[in-house]
Amino acid sequence: MNVNVNQSGSLPVRVEQDVVLARQQARKIASEQGMRLVDLTKLVTAVSELARNTVVYGGGGDMDWQVIEQTGRAGVRILFRDEGPGIADTRLALTDGWTSGSGLGLGLTGARRLVDEFDLDTAPGQGTRITITRWL
């Protein structure tokens, strides 16, 4: 395993094209760390969903990423942050099939299932911060 824990960065996620760039960056980071293809695919899919939510529901924001090491294992941690309206009912938002728009309601719950760690920090009028981690 060739892990460089000093890697980190940030990308704006403000328009639809930024969703593609976020997905490409996640793929590049995970691939460089030697993440297995199935895990890499899950991470990239989660990033795609969360980046799209950042643009559509959060009004745009940023994706911060870093390669981490904790108790002898390495992983990729990605934070999506926006200053949008926030999520009024997180329990409802994390229910399969629920959507606040015209989507399928799989974004947050689907992303949560695809990663090893998922943390949602939001409140009405306070924006949203979602941190995901996928371990190698």
From TrEMBL:
Q: What is the lineage of its organism?
A: Bacteria, Pseudomonadati, Pseudomonadota, Gammaproteobacteria, Pseudomonadales
Known CDD domains for this protein? Answer: HATPase_RsbT-like
Q: Give a single Pfam family match.
A: HATPase_c
Per the UniProt record, the source organism is: Pseudomonas cremoricolorata
Q: Which part of the chain is the Histidine kinase/HSP90-like ATPase domain?
A: 39-133
Please give the name of this protein. Anti-sigma regulatory factor
